[in-house]
Amino acid sequence: MAAAQQLMQLSGDEEDNDCKSKNKGNPDGEEEELEQNQSEITSAKIEEIFGREEEEEEEKQLRPRKRRYRSLVHIYMTTEPVNVKKVRC
């Protein structure tokens, strides 16, 4: 979700720069209001695209990673030691 917000902010930076260059004569209060409106619009777009984030459901869906490899202990237990006499260099 944070990555999506960053992408939306980065994509909106060009638009923000254009708006700020046009509105240089605005007092600080109006700029803050514009930034707040942009933030609300960005949040609304993110929720529209990805859906509302619900932490409770995410916690339930988290499960441990599936092991892709066997542990070394398991490998050592299942293999037989190499006989040095049979191995020739």
UniProtKB/TrEMBL annotation:
Which residue stretches does the UniProt record annotate as biased composition, category Basic and acidic residues? 18-27
Residue ranges of the region described as Disordered: 1-68
Q: What is this protein called?
A: Uncharacterized protein
- Say which species the protein is native to: Vitis vinifera
